[in-house]
Amino acid sequence: MIRGIHHTAISTGDLERAMAFYRDTLGFSLVMDHEWKSGTRNMDVTHALRDTAARVVLLRAANTMLEIFEYASPTPRPGDPERPLCDHGITHLCLEVDDIEAEFARLSSAGMRFHHPPVQNDGAKMTYGRDPDGNVIELIEFQREDEPLSLPSRA
């Protein structure tokens, strides 16, 4: 039985920069910081790569966890920071916020690049922006208390 999504993972060429963005700018907290050296067979097998070496962190914000990898080996190909959302693969990470206008202003001031200011769409306001590696992050604020897709409040 599938219980739900535990975390989303991304790869970066600069883990410190990515952590500064997700931890310091977006407010995630560090759960785990781990490193493995080349020759760690279990990591090579699970990642379907040879001679892997990497540092990985796990971050949490409310009920969302994000895992960020920085591979030292093998040498990764850089991603396209302008990758269109229509290209195959994971398209974005969505974060629910309480005040989208305030978050948009705060994150814009912190240097986050947005596609457009927040727009109203069927009971929610939303906007899309990019992290320092070009990964797309959606911010969403639900306008109705009875919105079924909204995250349950934490007691």
Describe the structure.
Strands 5, 6, 7, 8 and 9 form a five-stranded mixed beta sheet that branches. Strands 1-4-3-2 form a four-stranded mixed beta sheet, covered by helices on one side. It has two domains: 1-75, Roll (2,3-Dihydroxybiphenyl 1,2-Dioxygenase, domain 1); 83-147, 2,3-Dihydroxybiphenyl 1,2-Dioxygenase, domain 1 (Roll). By secondary structure, it is of the alpha+beta class. The chain is elongated, with a radius of gyration of 17 Å. The protein has helices spanning 15-25, 41-47, 100-109, and strands at 8-11, 29-36, 53-61, 64-73, 93-96, 113-114, 119-121, 124-130, 136-142. The longest helix has 11 residues, at 15-25.
| Basic shape | elongated
Identify the CATH architecture of the largest domain.
Roll
Instruction: Indicate the low-confidence ranges by residue numbers.
Output: none
Beta content comes to 25-35%
Task: Please render the helix and strand layout as text.
Elements: E1 8-11, H1 15-25, E2 29-36, H2 41-47, E3 53-61, E4 64-73, E5 93-96, H3 100-109, E6 113-114, E7 119-121, E8 124-130, E9 136-142
